[in-house]
Amino acid sequence: QVQVAESGGGFVQAGGSLRLSCTVSGLTFDRYDVMWLRQTPGRTPRDGISCITWNGYNSYYSDSVKGRFTISRDNAKNTLYLQMNNLKPEDTAMYYCAADFPYNCGDYVTGARVLETYNWGQGTQVTVSS
Questions:
Q1: Contact 94/38 with Cβ under 8 angstroms?
Q2: How far apart are the C-alpha atoms of 130 and 57, rounded to whole Å?
Q3: Planar angle of CA 8, 106, 129, nearest 5 degrees
Q4: How would you classify the pairing of strands 47-52 and 59-61?
Q5: End-to-end CA distance of the chain
Q6: Which strand ranges, in their side-by-side order, compose the sheet holding 3-7?
Q7: Count helices and strands in the chain by DSSP H and E runs
Q8: Cα separation of 17 and 4, whole Å?
Q9: Residue 113 pLDDT > 80, yes or no?
Q10: HSE-CB for 9 with a 13 A CA cutoff
Q11: Which residues, in sequence order, are bridge partners of residue 5?
Q12: Does residue 95 contact residue 37 with C-beta atoms inside 8 Å?
């Protein structure tokens, strides 16, 4: 069974930066696309915000984070990263990662698909003050 563990969240002021990490186990990491999602208070779906293909060659971003967030992966460490710069109060959310999902990861980032059933990790909280 796939297991994920997110870390790196925290409390920052608007304009600040954070780097999230996600370690993945239970699968051959370098064979899977992986993505970051976030969930804001009161909103049930987790919104896909960025994903990266198994080989790292292609990455995708939602309009809300494009130009500010950068996704990367280290296949040797089974780890996914999200560098978040120029953070805004609207980025405040619980952040999750996922691997091994049924559809093209870009579909989740555009909102065409929603990942509802998954063995979610605890997530990592990001809070941005104005």
A1: yes
A2: 35
A3: 35
A4: antiparallel
A5: 40
A6: 3-7, 18-25, 79-84, 69-74
A7: 1, 10
A8: 23
A9: yes
A10: 20
A11: 23
A12: yes
Residue with token string 């993945």:
24
With residue 129 as reference, give the H or E element that holds it: strand 124-129
Three-state DSSP class for 110?
helix
Q: CA-to-CA distance for 72 and 83, rounded, in angstroms?
A: 8
Q: 49, 38 in Cβ contact below 8 A?
A: yes
Q: Which amino acid is at 7?
A: S
Which residues are paired to 61 by β-bridges? 50
8 Å CB contact between 26 and 2: yes
pLDDT the model gives residue 94: 97
The dihedrals phi and psi of 96, each to the nearest 5 degrees, come to -130, 160
Question: What whole-number distance in Å separates Cα of residue 52 and Cα of residue 54?
Answer: 7
What is the per-residue pLDDT for 54?
Answer: 92
> Taken in order 49, 15, 75, 97, is the CA torsion positive or negative?
negative
Q: What is the per-residue pLDDT across 33-89, written as a single tens digit (0 to 9) for each?
A: 999 999 998 877 899 999 999 999 999 999 999 999 999 999 999 999 999 999 999
